[in-house]
Amino acid sequence: MLEVKDLNVTYGRVRAVKGITFTVEQGQVVTLVGTNGAGKTTTLKTISGLLRPESGEIWFEGKRIDSVPAHEVVGRGLAHSPEGRRIFPRLTVEDNLRLGAFARKDKAGVAKDLRRVFDLFEILQERRAQPAGTFSGGEQQMLAIGRAMMSRPKLLMLDEPSMGLSPLMMQRIMSTITELKSEGVTILLVEQNAQAALSLADFGYVLEVGKIVLQDSGKNLLVDEAVRKAYLGED
Amino acid sequence: MITLPTLVTPELQQRHGSRGRIIALFGGVLLIIAPFLPWAYSARALDDMTFLVDPSPLQYLGLVLGAIIVAFLVLQQVLKPAPRRPRTACVPGARAGATGALIYVVLILVSISVELGGAVNVMYGGWVALVATLLAFVGTRLMPTGRPPTLAAATAPAPLEVLAIAGLMAAALFAAAYALDQDDAGIFVSFLAFVGAVVAVMIRSGVMGWLSAVSQRHKKVLILAAFLVAFMFPFTQDGSDANMSIATQVIIFAATAMGLNIVVGLAGLLDLGYIAFLGAGAFVAAILSESAFSTINWHPPFIVVVLISGTVAAALGLIIGSPTLRVSGDYLAIVTLAFGEIFRISMNNLDGEDGPDLTNGSNGIPAIPELNFFGFDFGIRHELIGVPLGRFSNYYFLLLLVIGLIILVFTRLNNSRIGRGWVAIREDERAAEAMGVNVFGLKLFAFAGGAFLAGVAGSIKAHQDVSVTPDQYVFLESAFLLAAIVLGGMGTVLGVLIGATLLKLMPEKLRFVSEYRLLIFGLVLVLMMRFRPEGLVANQRRQLEFHEEDEELADRISDEIAETGTVKGAT
């Protein structure tokens, strides 16, 4: 479904992503794990068109998208829930969600998806008329995921959904991702929390300073010695 | 942050509430009596307040304020709180009335003193009025505030509600006509204070909440009524052009501010050179007009000129916007600021010496002929149903059409998909982009669209002003436009109309402050930013209004529990 080939991205003079190649298949949850500055967020931003690659190719559903502007990428079925959530704090929950469906024009479908998001996150329904900035971190994250889902994406890209959340809230978010997966949503998940991400991913890539150093199924990576040492805090 | 010390505590109000009521009632009644006494020693001050038993119009307004205070105090006793009955906030209403009356009377006394040279010229009636308002002020402040009003939830039969809107509009028309008629600065300021007092009373007591709920229900009636009132205004002037010339200036200013409101209020782009687009439209219209000083020998019909003016302005907008709108907001402010100056200087230089002769340099293009639509000459006096309408009235009607169009464009855009995109851009540009909002495209559209509307307004302004010169389009004008928007309330129609009207009307009516007007505007803006940063009219988003209604709902329910001990089922 998504194919990234030999992607290079530079920020000014710094090369953040150095020739990475990976794929996401339909219905899979694929995760990119790695420490700060490994190039995970840069990769997502480049896929969604917010950054332009220096070289390399990005293919989505058989079409090349690495020079498509960001606002058109969404229309093709790629949703990006950005790092730090980036919800609209002064807008209500419902306004936030409706903006998630900005690229769509089918009103009935949007209404249906709104109900679906409300079913998934009941708290959002309860507070649909409340400004989103008054929410806790976990609630904002639910909103961010819900908002990304409002574009009815074929591929959902989540950037650090567990950032800054309590362990309990993090579990809640992770179980939501599992739920989405069981519904057949394809997910590209970027996480620093390798344990959580790898345990629910079909396939994982480990990034280090812009390069993929390991790739395997989530299960295998979880028990890989090098991964355990570097990311799961074990000696 | 500046916090005002609380002199009157709730405990104090509990203890002295009934005493406060008596004091306030006494003050209110005294204020009703005071107008029948003479306030000034000379008839030259204000509108002649020298008579016993024969109040002047301004004194009658004082009486009205007194009556409002008394009415609310009586209402408070008469209206027994009942479950489900919409609540009027009587004490806050009386309090606002008393504060307004105090300011009103003080302004009148100051005006008398200034106009006659000293406070000795205030006669005993004036002092009685001052004491009355002071008593009312202190008395109402001693009373407990009570619960917030729930009048907004009240409904009346539809004809009655429509009648209320009609009454409001008629009052607005009358107030505008009366205010414009006053040449005396003291009368004008005092009258403005009276209007402010009445508005404050309506807001505090909840009547305004009811009126705005009613106008939400009958939106079409309201809009129609507002335009009818604006349309009627020239008929109240009896063919005189003095006030109509001010009114046309106000309306051009308001139309331009409304165009800028799309750029600033909706799309959130800080444009400091907007006046240049108005100027571009005016110059295009002047150059293409049949003026003897026009530099191009092609004179298409005016409707074509309007479109060309708008297009030229929009093209300028695209040229300025496309490189700068890609970068963050601050740069746009700087570039537009520079653009405004570049425009003015270019118009000065296109005089045939430094460049092609297009604008006659600083002389500009004078003697622009009057508009003429199908034989209807805008320059001469016409008569309609027996009422003479002068030159400025003709332009006024045309401009009314234009501002109506701009408001229509504004509200349509605001409620559209594009409007939602602008909201997202204003809140968080990067996130908006990730949602699929074409950030650059929508910004450019707002910028060029706003420029187009300014260009259209400018083309009419050229004919109305008769001459177009570069020095009419200076940075200060852009700053005033922006001030009107900030003062009135960014992103609102009503607020910007009020802001623009106040900003244009004040210097016309208060000639004596014209030298200090920048100082005063600056001061007012600073105070606004401190005490009401959202502007006179706040831009509440629909959903947030729902939310507030929910709170009121919760309030009503808790009322019921308190008063009946049970919650009635959903009946």
TrEMBL record, chain A:
Belongs to the ABC transporter superfamily. GO terms for biological process: L-amino acid transport. The keyword Transferase does not apply. The keyword ATP-binding applies. It comes from the Bacteria. It holds the Pfam family ABC_tran. It comes from uncultured Propionibacteriaceae bacterium. One of its GO terms (molecular function) is branched-chain amino acid transmembrane transporter activity. Keywords: Amino-acid transport, ATP-binding, Nucleotide-binding, Transport. PROSITE patterns: ABC_TRANSPORTER_1 (PS00211), ABC_TRANSPORTER_2 (PS50893). Residues 2-234 form the ABC transporter domain. This is Branched-chain amino acid transport ATP-binding protein LivF.
From TrEMBL, chain B:
It is found in: Cell membrane. GO terms for molecular function: branched-chain amino acid transmembrane transporter activity. One of its GO terms (cellular component) is plasma membrane. The chain crosses the membrane at residues 22-41, 57-75, 96-114, 120-139, 160-180, 186-207, 219-236, 242-267, 274-296, 302-319, 331-347, 395-413, 434-460, 480-503, 515-531. InterPro entries: ABC_transp_permease, LivM-like. Keywords: Cell membrane, Membrane, Transmembrane, Transmembrane helix. The keyword Membrane applies. It is a multi-pass membrane protein. This is Branched-chain amino acid transport system permease protein LivM. It comes from uncultured Propionibacteriaceae bacterium.
